[in-house]
Amino acid sequence: MKILIVSSYESQGGAAIAALRLQNSLLKENIDSSLLVQNKRSNRLDVLSDEGLVKKGFNIIRPVLDSIPTRFYKDRELTLFSPSMLPLSGVVDRINQINPDIVHFHWICGGMIKIEDISKITAPIVWTLHDNWAFTGGCHIKATCERHKDSCGACPVLHSSNKNDLSSKVWKRKMKTFSSISSLTIIGLSNWLNNLSKESSLLKDRVHYQLPNPIDCDIYRKIDKNMAKELWGLPQDKKIIVFGAMDIYDTRKGYLQLKEAIGKITTVDVEVVVFGSSRRLDKLDSKVKFHYVGFLYDDISMVTLYNAADVIIVPSLEENLSNVIMEGLACATPVVCFDIGGNSDLIEHKKTGYLAEKLNSDDLARGIDWVLKNDNYNKISTNSRQKVLNEFESSLVAKKYIALYKDLLS
After folding, report:
1. What's the start-to-end Cα distance of the chain, in Å?
2. How do residues 343-364 score in pLDDT, each as one tens digit?
3. Pick the CATH number of 2-214+393-409 from 3.40.50.720, 3.40.50.2300, 3.30.70.260, 3.40.50.2000
4. What CATH code would you report for 225-391?
5. pLDDT at residue 221 above 90?
6. 250 vs 255: CA distance, rounded Å
């Protein structure tokens, strides 16, 4: 059995990390698997990409070129919208040349594949959804819009009132292309996203499975908390709150709610560590000290920081199956987040963490205090890791994907 995983990026962003982890998991199970990417960062032989300097350079600017049609909508939201209409990527030709038994899509935007070219792939396609793009007219986060159930148009992300706008045109291209694909199987990482896809006009007639991302629990594991704090130069006598986001001023990451919650917690002797961004939060009224550690590029840094934390906060307003939550739980650190998206697939309320009411900074603060003041903290910590071992451990999840591949090929 020969599997080809397709992802725009090798390790940039949560979807790319998830695809790479699946690749690693399949290799450990002795599956002939490769990862085809548009932008390669490593020297791994099992990660495939264009080798020529000109082609590599063009691949870097493809996301910018693909976004050009959206720029005619001057009042559009500053969130990602992918027309996926850029030709000449050569990706489909490469896929067919490799001739896999299964092509497994993950996140394939950024100009990687023109929508119409998907129908030229000769192998059966499995598609893991990391956001809403596959079943919308181009937006990745549909928010409260329900037009994915119809035919898009009048797109709120584009701030358009035209029923025949870019989103409608992209939807029609997808409908025509998807209708010509005989073997297309959809995987929703979370129950939430799986249900959204099932009710969409584009994918409702396709077979859906719910399978999670895998995580290597030998890497993401519990280590001594005092040692981890010492490695990061954090005080032993303080409770450490960890928060991470690529852009803390992306309102979808919930930094406003986090800022309000930090000002409302009653736990004393608390400090906050922010990773993933070099930008600083606006000055808080509270006296809580903040540490900014910037972007973390390796597993060791992430594992030691998660273990240095007494609680991890994920206040995002949109989440599918959060890598940060899964990684934190695997390191036996409880997580507090809003009860949205796929978060409830990971967090069992008051067992592995705390699910706060969406947008409610008061409840978020209550969740932080509940974890930090809990007399049964060690039990919550043990529950957190056990949840990941039972449901998301690398070998366990890989076997489920292998079983699906075999079922499709039979």
Report:
1. 11
2. 999 999 999 999 999 999 999 9
3. 3.40.50.2000
4. 3.40.50.2000
5. yes
6. 8
